[in-house]
Amino acid sequence: MASQTINGKAFEYSLLIEFYERLNKNTSVSITKNEPYKTAKSFFESFNESEQDTFRITASASINFLLDIEPKLSNGINEDDILVLELVSDQAGQTGDVRDVLMIRSLQKWEIGISAKNNHRAVKHSRLSNKIDFGEKWLGVSCSDEYFNEINPVFDMLSELRAENKSTKWTSIQDMHQVVYIPILNAFRKELLRLDKNNPNVVAENLVQYLIGNQDFYKVIKGNKKVEIQAYNLHGSLNLPFEKVKPKAKIPKLKLPSRLIEIVYQKNSTTTLLVSLNEGWQISFRIHNASSRVEPSLKFDINLVSAPHTLFTNHIFINSED
Fold this sequence. Notes:
seven-stranded mixed β-sheet, globular, alpha+beta, five-stranded antiparallel β-sheet
């Protein structure tokens, strides 16, 4: 995990620097040298020169493409229209904003963001417990009493085990999947379907927004000798023209789902639910215990399994010198 974080931050820094070097010749640009910037810079500088070059070549390839589809990046109204480049603190992710790199023109009241990844999936790590109303927190609609009545016995049992001995391990619970995971997942599944039925057109849409963020963004995924750019254009704020300068490619708006289709267990799994929604969205929820010691809460790893075919994706292959 640590190396992934370091790689990710170094890649964010290389995007920022490449944007600056590319744009400062023809428009006013500034970099916000905040804490996230200093951290990312130190991570970037911890790599040797050829690794730094790889980061920068990858960043540069994605920037060529972004400049073509985002004319506002290179075009200011006048000298006071400064393009501000900024790295975002990790705290923002908790409020539903997944962007790491921001490009802001306050004079044009415009900004776009990039989620920079060294690997694929947008992941949330959300907790479940009998004190957490996941419906309220994720979807804006409260969970029912039935849901809490169903999960309380399991979490009460876990609380008691912990009260008896703080160092009790999960491994000491016999048939843990049958006793803990499955009852909680079944209750979660029923509740999600119930909430969707009682709040038509709300739950499916809010679930995806909770997962991939409440802001439009580009996801730039650094791979081996290639970079992938995905455009999450949910609200239509990406790909705008600047005066008469039009983008060189059209990015469709991404359709949010309006209903849940089904929730099933992943094949041969007692820990993972697959949630299928209309418009081509599918999300997996894998439940696990966050620490080795028993505690009255569980964690989800949430992954986007598939997105609509309208998700704009571009692959750029890179010939870096070996």
